[in-house]
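Quick one: structure tokens for this chain, please?
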Amino acid sequence: MTLKINQLIFLALFALSSLAGFAQLGFSHEIGIIAGPVAFQSDFGQRYNFDTNSGNTGIGIGLIHYINFSYRADCSCYTTDTYFNDHFKLRSEISWNSTELNHFGEWVKPSRSGTNVEKLRAHSGRATNLDLGMQLEYYPFSIRAFSVQVGSWAPFVSLGAHLTKYYPKVATSYGDQDVTNLDNFYGPWHYPYGRVDNNFVNVHNGTTWSVVGSVGTRYKLSILSDLMVDLRWQYYFRDNIDGLDHQLDSNKANDYLVWLNFGYIYYLD
């Protein structure tokens, strides 16, 4: 736990130092908080299964910062009226999400029985991730016009990259309940396609990159504050974020998540 706190402090200090550099450029700034439900898509459960999608859900929270290119804080004036300044914002974020994972769907339904079914039902996990990254948000309508109209809306899309520190947890109530004893896990995961490396269970922390895209909108609550909602898709460049990386044909993609978050944003003078 102490290690996680130290890493969080380091990432926060890194983010603040980066933002301090941007502050010297004179652009205005916005800060906010986001939170909402996360649906984690991984090797747990059955692909395209409603129970899997609804059951493997968790929560995410985050702190966000924006560089607003349309306004200068150092002179309380608008910047040069260019398309980029009036339609883009740079979003920085430090966030955390956590999801309990279980097996759902066809292979564990009540009508099935057998050793492998019992192993799947006994297997659980947790995907916990700490993120630091940036996204470039595009607003098709004028940011300047939105900023002075209380009650107005500002839809946007975004794309960016995050550095992710992941902390997978693996558990099983089958057999001797030892997660290093791979015989406690689903039989077909052993030696698929003649492989002799049984690395499908991962209990180690790690770091990877992820690509983040979202679509959302802001609502102008007051001149200096907005409400926000956006739907995020985040794709990791690793497949063991959930603590599981089996090599069956059903494993067609790396882990990813969908996060519906709600936020409050305040404009700094």
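The chain has one domain: 31-268.
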